[in-house]
Amino acid sequence: MVDAPENTRNSQDIRLVVLDMAGTTVADGGLVERAFAAAARHVGADPEAGLDHVRATMGESKISVFRHLFGEETKAQEANKAFEAAYADLVDAGEVAALPGAHEAVEELRAQGRTVVLTTGFARPTMDAILAALGWQDLVPLTLCPADAGGRGRPYPDMVLTAFLRTAAAQDVRQIAVVGDTSYDMLSGVRAAAGVVAGVLTGAHGADALRAAGATHVLGSVAELPGVLT
Fold it and tell me: GO molecular function, one example (predicted)?
């Protein structure tokens, strides 16, 4: 599925592609919700009470989500640590997998001469565990979590702009493509003034939410991206 009318003419200028992980290149399969439930129980909270907020804010840094839900910094930090531990256990149990065609899409994008960066709302230890589980440690030249970009995750543009500065792959932010499965991914791309802001339908949010947040393209999956950019 491709919805990319007026922006296709800009796609060939893309030099830097910033890809989300869970829900975009990595199958989520409800792992975030399961890890959140474990974290909520760990701090004595009702998992069901915050689930709607967790779903609505998929893509945001997890510590920000817990600060919103629990208010108290100590409790938020404790919940975040429990979340990361629960998610790591799921990764160790082999419950994380690449989405179909994701690895091949990254390789094709790089073969086209584009620089690819992977980003996440998870903390660095969790990100590294996912990359190791998939054998993706050397797939791209740069991976970023919120802490790598000063601490602010999506919907802020910080990770996108950090990728822009660190890679020096693009001369203009309009040569950036930002790709994700949530409205927060789209907002981060819009706020970074990226030339392409593409939503994929393999994760948390549907086409209407992605478009409402500023998606210039809506794709069935990241596997379609190399073709769109050529």
Answer: phosphoglycolate phosphatase activity
* Cβ-proximal residues to 3 (8 Å cutoff; 6+ apart), any chain: 207, 211, 217, 218, 219
33 or 224, higher pLDDT: 224
Q: Which runs of E-coded beta strand occur in 145-207?
A: 176-180, 196-200
Q: How far apart are CA 120 and CA 143, in angstroms?
A: 8
What CATH code is assigned to 2-28+97-229?
3.40.50.1000
**Token representation of residue 189:** 């791309």
Cα 17 → chain centroid? 12
Task: Enter the CATH code of domain 31-92.
Answer: 1.10.150
Helices (H) and strands (E) in the chain, counts: 11, 9
Domain boundaries, the chain: 2-28+97-229, 31-92
